[in-house]
Amino acid sequence: MLRSSMPLPSIRLSPTYQRRELIEKAWELPVARLYAPLLSQSFKSICGPTSVANVLRSMGVRTGTNPFTRFGVRAMSLDQVVNESREVVPKEWRVSAVRTRSVEQLRVQLRESNDPSRRFVSNFARSSLFGGGSGHHSPLGGYLEAEDLAFVLDVNSGFGPWLVEAARLFDAMNTGDWSGGLTRGLARYERE
Fold this sequence. Notes:
This protein has one domain (about 20-190): Cathepsin B, Chain A (Alpha-Beta Complex), CATH 3.90.70. It is of the alpha+beta class and about 190 residues long. It has a 6-stranded antiparallel β-sheet with strand order 1-6-2-3-4-5, sandwiched between helices. The radius of gyration is 15 Å and the shape is globular. About 25% of the residues lie in helices and about 20% in strands. The chain has helices spanning about 20-25, 45-60, 80-85, 105-110, 125-130, 165-175, and strands spanning about 95-100, 120-125, 135-145, 150, 160-165, 185-190. The chain contains 6 helices and 6 strands, in the order H-H-H-E-H-E-H-E-E-E-H-E. It starts with 19 loop residues before the first helix and ends with a strand.
């Protein structure tokens, strides 16, 4: 069920959003380290394909910003990212869509984002976090559990990596996407 929430202030106003010592701590997480250096989206490939390119690179696969066989500059739903990812991930990896129904369910996934045998791409409504913008995809670098902060590796270089409370990320993912009434969520990559 979609959650209706009142507009909240931009997470840029949060003291944890890009707090230097927390960002440095987040880059030390076991999965986050695998993403350096992070590719940014460009005029050739926007957020969905670029996020998957970063996931592939974190797995040791060499790729450019658009690993898909289709055009890289197009809006993509969570399910499109998942389906097209299946065509390009190494054979020992499987991909699925996860649509959590509660913040607690999201926290379970966030804890798993620190496991090197897993990767996640979050699909969220930027407007729910920043007060403007549309749907967006970015990899998760991990979860600072003690602080309850997800580390979002934003592929838009104008934002850069940032931290967000699990509840705010849940609200931003628990919004409808344009592809048929489903909510946004996570693309989950898991090594078998």
